[in-house]
């Protein structure tokens, strides 16, 4: 009874240490494969007994009963069938467990990606990209061992020893008691070593994340590092972080080997105790040969799953360490992100309606998480349908933050954004964004063909629509000059585009999207005067018949604006047209004089 309690307590501790309930909940999505893993585990336990019983029967009949080969042939056939079946069951169990691993990894990756998309650019800006990539790729991958090795072994470690005990007790009470007494030794050692390895595995995963973040940073900033002559310093830092990861990995390997040694020792000693106890009683004729042989054969099988569980415990550990970070991301409150469902208005009522109304900011305030000062303070203005509104201000005044609020990447901390009488937060975010085209300062090129890169703006666009958008943006002549035309691969691993060409691609995306509200961050760098004028022309055409909010860097754009919003330190300090604001001689005039925001 005491032992049963000890065992229960010991396994309870293991459960707390290595069986994350949220990970188990994930496994439920692959419930058929999980059920199959358990069934195969159970069948494995029964086959171990069948194998031991037929093997001991064959040996006892041949050596003690002096039976001929012909007499034991049926038993040998049965033994062969059991061998084959056992191999099949082991294979089936592994296939099923791998099925669980593949499903869970796929689902976790999807969940992570959806969550990161919902958390939006504001969250990602606060995280290290390399660390997020490491958690989403290596982190999820390290769960493979958890689901394909540790969990199935846990099932086997529960099923096989139990089946062995059930078979041994009726045959020999003393041997059953010895097995029951020695069984907890392995889990106890596992827990002791597991405590040590938990800290080491967490340290290893942290080192891996740091190394990934560092590598990604280095790759992204290679041009800057080269230009500043910092590549040698960086190489030294890379070897430092790699060394840190190596040390952490060696630490984990050391404990793995140590625990393998201890578990082997405990398993072998326990088997030896059973063997000695059986041997002595066999010698004194207190136990039958077949019975003794059966127990001797099943004794190692009794400890084997527990020993293997001890070894796979480490594989499970890395999974748990990675899962902690994955669930931390999944549990991040979506204070900034907009819910994609549960909105009070149906999409059908909204399509095309809200955008015909003025879009108004009413006393909008915004604080970035963790920052004490608001970046936008009590901002109120309206954009009338068809208006070109220019947003100007010094660097850091809050222009991009305001554009991100309008795009729904972040939510106002105070105040409201309205479209007519509807609050933005009541409009499904997908519907809201469907009416918006966004052209940023640094167009993003995705890996793929040119045509794929344009279709991002409209998945079902026909080639004619794409061609028309490209002509409007002045991209058609760039495409015509490329040997593979629209099929030219760009982005990672493909050809690059110049700053001006990439900008045209971004404008072509906006033409293709054909949304009524355009949010535009004017490019400032990398363009020669001719390119700049050509792009300004394209941009002007894009603005026709659209409502436009432009983060303006060119004086010409600001002059043409129906309304200019001047941001200073998060406050909307002035609002009006160019001539009036200039005449006022306030913040706008100072900005123009300083050559920022207007030129
Ligand atoms: N993700 C963020 N987390 C915390 N603070 C941020 C974040 N993004 C921007 N900020 C801060 O908010 C302030 C306003 O930034 P914002 O990017 O909106 O300015 P901006 O006017 O667009 O500047 P620029 O013209 O240089 O792009 C800055 O002080 C900036 O440091």
Automatic annotation (TrEMBL):
The chain crosses the membrane at residues 33-64, 76-101, 150-169, 175-194, 256-276. This is Thiol reductant ABC exporter, CydD subunit. It is found in: Cell membrane. One of its GO terms (cellular component) is plasma membrane. One of its GO terms (molecular function) is ATP binding. Residues 35-318 form the ABC transmembrane type-1 domain. SMART domains: AAA. It comes from the Bacteria. Residues 359-594 form the ABC transporter domain. It holds the Pfam family ABC_membrane. Coiled coil: none annotated. InterPro entries: AAA+_ATPase, ABC1_TM_dom, ABC1_TM_sf, ABC_transporter-like_ATP-bd, ABC_transporter-like_CS, ABC_transptr_CydD, P-loop_NTPase, Type_1_exporter. Keywords: ATP-binding, Cell membrane, Membrane, Nucleotide-binding, Transmembrane, Transmembrane helix, Transport. It is a multi-pass membrane protein. GO terms for biological process: cysteine transport.
